[in-house]
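Example with several molecule types.
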Amino acid sequence: DADVTQTPRNRITKTGKRIMLECSQTKGHDRMYWYRQDPGLGLRLIYYSFDVKDINKGEISDGYSVSRQAQAKFSLSLESAIPNQTALYFCATSDSVQGRNQPQHFGDGTRLSIL
Amino acid sequence: QKEVEQDPGPLSVPEGAIVSLNCTYSNSAFQYFMWYRQYSRKGPELLMYTYSSGNKEDGRFTAQVDKSSKYISLFIRDSQPSDSATYLCAMSGTNDYKLSFGAGTTVTVRA
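Resulting structure tokens for the full complex:
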């Protein structure tokens, strides 16, 4: 089984709909992240969470919200989807070791299309 | 100007060739350097993780970091068709949660 699981893997929806993408992990990591990937732009950070009570905006948080339901679960919501939010969305996790930055581990992504 | 620049390719090489990938960056605070491999319809998979300047080798993969030139490289020796993927560089500063990614280079290894 995958260490970082994202659901759904694919989703097509219409403009104005509310969408929730879910992420769960079995790695036991404290830190979780949401990214979107667009061709030619690489991965851009939407939100990140260092623990259940700590939620922070990334570089492109407008139009998105998140919820950290438990250490292992981090969901991303699009309150009112718009076509330019069509992208690949990735969840990632990392361990927290004081004084040393740890690499991030990614799920297999959600391909979201908004018509 | 982007903080991390990476040639998107595409790069096509015959099986057995050496693949050379690189990224340049502008932020002198970056200390941690990573290379990820991403297959189609999959998430990025960590390949190499290095700290500060120097070389690191893992099997057919070698990562090099030259902080004085703000330049990192990944070499793949004896390339195989299974190495066909998009390769992403990523980097961060000390105690910095945020990874800065290159846009990725698409590599095809021809059998």
